[in-house]
């Protein structure tokens, strides 16, 4: 039940965190800069994460939970959600300032029950995830959508997939189908929701609603994305097939083993895994599959909300953009200025060297976006390897591109005045 004073645009953002307090704190700083005017943030975390969240002073809803089960944790967050819309983001992700307002905009259409956006990877530029459907065997199928987005129906055996670190749902609809299934402790949890929720309405894909997802280390992978444990992937795959395609269960282990062995072999050839480590990981995969085949499956029943009051974050809403740009030798001054300005504006810093070094983008925990690389360097993989531009022209080019995702009202973009150029 949604409180009677709630606006249709109100949102509850749920973050699940375990053993990643520093990443969680950075995620929360980015959320505090959202241009959406009215939303709350619910953190479901272990004691260390709760302490980090409390230290931000943001006025969050905090739920203690210290078990390795993301589905159960998300259901706890869903129970606390007071808004009609509930969004999810991972603790090792950071959202662009326009993320939430764009992600929830399609819900103005009454038939939309879910939405999802695009995700950038570790370098802050390349896409980690765009658009896909998922079938009843848990296999993804890429979708092409225009930049302005698309609203799509599901079809028998297929659902539009929402990526777990960038998705939103009508809270009532998600509760009505039983929320997330705790049998999926990790992996395929949102795909299962998509197949159950898909027949209830449409799913919006919003390419310009973007988050950056760094893939921090976890009990299942290293920081360089090398897996350390495949048991939960295997267990969840077995559960998924039992739920949605029991006829495929017989050949499911062989297919999963083939897919994961190919992945592990790439890491082995790159020197990131040994033969013994690959063997151990594949043994764990088979153990996880056996666990998934015997894991208890519950009957789905509507979840109950605890109907709490909405607890909106203070001081959210549109902010001006500020660009600080300079050569690499002005870096310290740029960063000092960015820290000072971050509480009042969406700050983007360009620190470029006179080289062809590739660009990268990251969100600094002090609350600003840092773009680094060479003046002549490549940004998008599909773009030219070299850009022979002057400093002012290069900054203006970058501002035009990134203005699609965050405010970039900036003197350097318009007038060519850069830190470190003073005479």
Automatic annotation (TrEMBL):
Record-stated family: Belongs to the glycosyltransferase 2 family.
Q: Which Gene3D superfamilies match?
A: Spore Coat Polysaccharide Biosynthesis Protein SpsA, Chain A
Q: Which UniProt keywords apply?
A: Glycosyltransferase, Transferase
- Per its UniProt record, what SUPFAM superfamilies does this chain match? Nucleotide-diphospho-sugar transferases (SSF53448)
**Keyword Zinc annotated:** no
Which named protein is this? Glycosyltransferase
Please name one Pfam family that this protein belongs to. Answer: Glycos_transf_2
Instruction: Please report the stretch or stretches of sequence annotated as the Glycosyltransferase 2-like domain.
Output: 12-134
GO molecular function list: glycosyltransferase activity
Q: Which organism is it from?
A: Fuscibacter oryzae
